[in-house]
Backbone:
């Protein structure tokens, strides 16, 4: 039962995100009269509408990205289940052809390629690469989260500046009613932009946390499946010892080829050295015969016999 819940965690995260979004929509509908008064009532300003509109657009973009990734991880989770079933019945390329875009099949093919290049595939390195790759997919959402707060602060500061201008006019010209109008409009705009930024940030953070949990669940399943079943399957063919021996024989063969090339380069030099040695031997023999003749001549001339 626990394993089943764990495997279906991405679907459960989508359900939680949907419930959170539905509760947010219900809250907006419940307070629709207040929201209409704040955002579109007489106190609304063009500055507030522009800032709130930008915040709303960014919020919808981030929300769309989150749900896209949530459904993508549902697909990855289902691909892992199908991959495990294929392993139970005998894994073939034709059987996993429909899953060629999934993360688990990409991991399997990378391990197959690594087996021909390394003594043993490095799962730790592959795990770090996978985690970094998946974290980059969250970059847009994190950027929008930061922008929501910055836009809220900008709207608040700009609205307070508008209110200060109204206060200045009120102090300078008390008889003019425009100053108090600017103050009221500025405070109302500051309230609306702050509410929009904080509300969208909280909802986005809540739903984003469900995406992070879903991502962690899929990555954990991939690493566990790689460790328990994929690595033994990949390294089973021929065994590690035979594979290592084949690599060493390949290295020895390359060394032998290199020695043969060196021998081919040295052969002319060796032939030249042999010829030079032969010439020196001939000269030595001639010098020895000459010395013997001189010796015989001296013996005869001085009657040393």
Residues:
């Amino acid at each position: 039962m626990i394993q089943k819940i764990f495997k279906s965690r991405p679907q459960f995260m989508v359900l939680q995100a949907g419930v959170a979004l539905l509760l947010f929509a219900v809250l907006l509908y419940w307070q629709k009269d207040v929201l209409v008064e704040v955002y579109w009532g007489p106190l609304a300003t063009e500055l507030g509408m522009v800032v709130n509109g930008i915040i709303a657009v960014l919020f919808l973009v981030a929300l769309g990205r989150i749900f896209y990734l949530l459904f993508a991880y549902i697909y990855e989770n289902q691909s892992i289940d199908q991959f495990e079933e294929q392993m139970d019945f005998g894994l073939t390329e034709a059987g996993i052809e429909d899953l060629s875009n999934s993360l688990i099949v990409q991991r399997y093919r990378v391990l197959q390629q690594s087996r021909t290049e390394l003594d043993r595939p490095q799962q730790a390195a592959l795990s770090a690469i996978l985690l970094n790759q998946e974290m980059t997919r969250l970059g847009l959402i994190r950027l929008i989260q930061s922008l929501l707060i910055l836009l809220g602060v900008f709207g608040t500061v700009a609205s307070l500046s508008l209110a200060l201008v109204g206060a200045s006019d009120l102090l300078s010209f008390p008889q003019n009613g425009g100053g108090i109008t600017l103050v009221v409009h500025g405070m109302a705009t500051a309230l609306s932009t702050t509410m929009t930024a904080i509300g969208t940030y909280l909802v986005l953070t809540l739903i984003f946390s469900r995406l992070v949990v879903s991502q962690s669940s899929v990555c954990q399943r991939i690493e566990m499946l790689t460790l328990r079943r994929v690595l033994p399957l990949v390294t089973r063919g021929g065994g590690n010892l035979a594979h290592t021996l084949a690599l060493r024989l390949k290295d020895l063969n390359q060394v032998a080829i290199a020695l043969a090339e060196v021998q081919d380069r040295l052969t002319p030099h060796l032939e030249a050295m042999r010829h030079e040695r032969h010439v020196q031997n001939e000269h030595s023999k001639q010098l020895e015969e000459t010395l013997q003749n001189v010796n015989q001549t001296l013996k005869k001339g001085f009657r040393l016999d």
Notes: The CA atoms of residues 128 and 134 lie 10 Å apart. Residues 239-301 form the longest helix (63 residues).
